[in-house]
């Protein structure tokens, strides 16, 4: 007895479909059905409460102490955001550090730049003199270079007067401050 051609063709097609389904089922992995998780660049990958960083020089002396109420590392741009940062920056050969405070801050990926903003205040107590106070809306600090700068307004209050300017460069090691433009001062005669 001869099998009709349409049954042979149908059987071969049915066998091919069954084989394709078996191979396809064998290649299916559960991971292909789970949604891919894409990290949100606005979400921190870690945070710290009451964070403290101390940088020491080759002799083991402190260069600076950085504290913050809260520090959060952002994945997207690889920066660490700081709430209420306070930086004590020690000058070589002096006991009293520069005291730098702000409302917000941001530490770059390599830690080579600290950007402070909102109510940035720098104070230094020099022995035998009143406290010197400098305020600005924003300040960039480069700890490795012992340098700070801003292109914003600056106000310096000293014992005998007030000086204002736009833009400033400061060297923490030698205490030199360079005011860049629109410098004005009101000083009392001694």
CATH class reads Mainly Beta
Structural class: mainly beta
> Which whole number gives the mean pLDDT?
81
CATH architecture verdict:
Sandwich
Number of domains: 1
* General shape: rod-shaped
In order across it, which strands form the biggest sheet? 2-3-6-7-5-4
Summary, kept brief:
This protein has a single domain, classed as Lipopolysaccharide (LPS) transport protein A like domain (lipopolysaccharide transport protein A fold, Sandwich), CATH 2.60.450.10. The protein has one helix spanning 5-27; strands at 44-56, 62-74, 79-83, 86-89, 98-101, 104-107, 114-124, 132-142, 147-158, 161-171, 177-187.
Structure, explained:
With 190 residues, the chain is mainly beta. It has one domain (44-187): Lipopolysaccharide (LPS) transport protein A like domain (lipopolysaccharide transport protein A fold). The protein contains 1 helix and 11 strands, in the order αβββββββββββ. The chain has one helix at residues 5-27, and strands at residues 44-56, 62-74, 79-83, 86-89, 98-101, 104-107, 114-124, 132-142, 147-158, 161-171, 177-187. Strands 2-3-6-7-5-4 form a 6-stranded antiparallel barrel.
Essential attributes:
190 residues; mainly beta; 6-stranded antiparallel beta barrel; 12% helix
Could you give the topology of this structure?
Blueprint: H1 5-27, E1 44-56, E2 62-74, E3 79-83, E4 86-89, E5 98-101, E6 104-107, E7 114-124, E8 132-142, E9 147-158, E10 161-171, E11 177-187
Antiparallel strand pairs: 1-2, 2-3, 2-4, 3-6, 4-5, 5-7, 6-7, 7-8, 8-9, 9-10, 10-11
């Amino acid at each position: 007895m001869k099998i009709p051609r349409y049954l042979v063709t149908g059987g071969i097609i049915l066998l091919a479909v069954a084989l394709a389904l078996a191979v396809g089922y064998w290649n299916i992995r559960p991971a292909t059905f789970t949604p891919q998780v894409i990290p949100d660049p606005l979400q921190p990958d870690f945070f710290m409460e009451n964070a403290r960083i101390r940088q020491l020089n080759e002799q083991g002396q402190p260069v600076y102490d950085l504290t913050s109420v809260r520090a959060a590392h952002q994945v997207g741009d690889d920066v660490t955001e700081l709430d209420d940062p306070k930086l004590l920056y020690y000058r070589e050969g002096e006991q009293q550090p520069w005291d730098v405070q702000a409302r917000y801050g941001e530490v770059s990926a390599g830690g080579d730049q600290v950007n402070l903003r909102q109510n940035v205040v720098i104070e230094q107590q020099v022995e035998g003199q009143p406290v010197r106070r400098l305020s600005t809306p924003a300040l960039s600090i480069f700890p490795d270079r012992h340098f700070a700068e801003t292109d914003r307004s600056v106000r310096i209050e000293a014992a005998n007067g007030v000086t204002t300017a736009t833009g400033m460069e400061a060297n923490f090691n030698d205490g030199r401050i360079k005011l860049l433009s629109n410098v004005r001062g009101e000083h009392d005669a001694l």
